[in-house]
Backbone:
């Protein structure tokens, strides 16, 4: 009986070369094409870098896989191929950069949030570019030589690769120096080297840092009531999600995205910057005593925040959650989590419309208050990429919209329409919040603050969503809306001058750094932690 000859096993060197070629020509293809276009777009294209860049990347991959491909690491390399295909898709389609903050986002996300990124396109791409190659890598038969022979060959391969890399880079030093200087994002684009180093940085920071001694802040905090005050203060702090300042009518946007709140005396802050470009950074940062310039996530987790200090001063604090969590900010105060069960008429089993926040707010305020109270409502807001799920059908005002998660395949008009519908719905929720507060006007001095955690990119320069490292983040992801409303009694009894505030919002710039101190000032809490110059209300308080 004739049997076909079995295919010879691959040598380890061949497997390293094939894997390196795959990462260079497939998983780094988008990066190479992008930088090729940038080079060719120059008045004087640098053809030396254009031609040699793929060679440098290939030999870099050879070094990487010569170090990590062994007879014992096949499952690890397969996982690396699979995850690299996910990174490739996210980078190519959304412009996402996988730095340590992005891994923190993944770690702190939930199933509901993760599910919004799954669609037919992502499934096909990851299956073809990740699952199939990963399985083939596991199934291929490889002939590994004895340890010391294999080691000798690997050392030679690595040395030759390094000679080629350094030979090209140093012989074209001026060319590559200019290229790297003008393309700061380049090092963040190479798969898998950058995201692996980012993952290591995140794991080290999250799990292997030396535990910090908990820092108790504001132990001296006391309320200093104004002489004119005769009713409790009730402040609702609405924490927005993924709303960018550019799409608010108050900030000069040509569409009437603020048609609902415009009937009230809203004071819009014109120039406000976020602390980060992700929820995982911005939320704990804005409530922290630290400013963005010296912010540490680990220190924030091990310190009291402004919510804790207000509670110590006798303020009644409640956090109502309709997002993926408060990122540790509300851990020590009363927290109401809106269940996402589809049995709730406002929920689909994964997310709830923000109208659900109002039900909880009304229930929380149904009993008379004895003390000043702060209620924080954390919205789902404009969370993408499934923007179309953030508003009900009757708020589908701007059409045609983009009813899918692969937003990069919608036209720009469709995408902007969908996003603007989320802003319009947010404005409606804010107007209904004010209406709820006004119904309690006989009992309390009332005010509302709204600020978003970060902004969003809607395809500008090929970038979608958010999470770009702050140092290179576009303004769309950093500039956020902030609105303030108060009734006449709050203004009078807390000595706040509306006209002064209106003028100040146009004249000065603000950021999340102001939130900590402004909340202390607004609630009339004195503490050594309070910094007057960072209180955005101070200059307008008698």
Residues:
């Amino acid at each position: 009986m004739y049997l076909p000859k079995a295919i010879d096993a691959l040598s380890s060197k061949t497997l390293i070369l094939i894997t390196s070629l795959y990462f260079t020509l497939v998983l780094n293809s988008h990066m190479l094409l992008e930088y090729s276009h940038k080079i060719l777009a120059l008045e004087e294209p640098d053809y030396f870098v254009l031609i040699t860049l793929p060679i440098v990347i290939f030999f870099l991959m050879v070094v990487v896989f010569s170090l990590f491909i062994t007879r014992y690491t096949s499952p690890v390399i397969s996982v690396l191929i699979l995850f690299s295909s996910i990174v490739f898709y996210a980078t190519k389609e959304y412009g996402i950069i996988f730095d340590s903050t992005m891994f923190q986002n993944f770690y702190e996300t939930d199933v509901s949030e993760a599910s919004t990124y799954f669609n037919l396109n992502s499934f096909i791409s990851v299956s073809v570019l990740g699952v199939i190659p990963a399985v083939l890598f596991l199934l291929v038969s490889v002939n590994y030589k004895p340890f010391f022979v294999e080691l000798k060959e690997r050392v030679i391969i690595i040395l030759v690769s390094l000679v080629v890399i350094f030979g090209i880079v140093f012989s074209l030093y001026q060319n590559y120096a200019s290229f790297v200087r003008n393309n700061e994002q380049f090092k963040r684009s190479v798969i898998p080297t950058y995201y692996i180093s980012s993952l290591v940085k995140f794991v080290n920071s999250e799990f292997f840092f030396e535990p910090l001694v908990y820092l108790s802040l504001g132990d001296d905090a006391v309320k200093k009531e104004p002489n004119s005050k005769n009713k409790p203060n009730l402040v609702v702090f609405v924490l927005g999600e993924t709303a960018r300042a550019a799409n608010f009518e108050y900030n000069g946007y040509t569409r009437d995205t603020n048609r609902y709140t415009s009937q009230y005396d809203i004071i819009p802050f014109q120039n406000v910057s976020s602390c980060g470009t992700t929820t995982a950074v911005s939320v704990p940062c804005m409530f922290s005593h630290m400013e963005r310039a010296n912010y540490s996530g680990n220190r924030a987790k091990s310190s009291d925040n402004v919510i804790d200090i207000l509670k110590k001063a006798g303020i009644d604090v409640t956090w109502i959650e309709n997002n993926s969590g408060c990122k540790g900010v509300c851990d020590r105060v009363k927290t109401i989590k809106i269940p996402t069960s589809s049995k709730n008429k406002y929920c689909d089993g994964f997310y709830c419309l923000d109208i659900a926040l109002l039900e909880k707010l009304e229930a929380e305020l149904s009993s008379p208050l004895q003390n000043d109270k702060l209620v924080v409502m954390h919205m789902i807001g404009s969370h993408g990429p499934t923007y179309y799920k953030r508003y009900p059908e009757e708020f589908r005002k701007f059409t045609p919209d983009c009813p899918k998660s692969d937003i990069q395949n919608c036209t720009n008009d469709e995408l902007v329409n969908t996003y603007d519908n989320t802003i319009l719905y947010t404005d409606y929720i804010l107007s209904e919040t004010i209406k709820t507060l006004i119904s309690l006007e006989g009992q309390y001095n009332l005010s509302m603050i709204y600020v978003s955690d970060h902004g969003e990119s809607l395809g500008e320069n090929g970038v979608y969503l958010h999470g770009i490292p702050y140092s290179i983040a576009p303004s769309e992801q950093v500039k956020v809306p902030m609105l303030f409303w108060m009734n006449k009694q709050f203004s009078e009894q807390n000595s706040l001058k509306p006209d002064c505030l209106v003028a100040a919002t146009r004249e000065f710039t603000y950021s999340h750094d102001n939130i900590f101190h402004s909340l202390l000032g607004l609630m009339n809490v004195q503490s050594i932690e309070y910094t007057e110059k960072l209180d955005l209300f101070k200059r307008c308080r008698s």
About this structure: The chain has two domains: 10-207, 235-282+315-540.
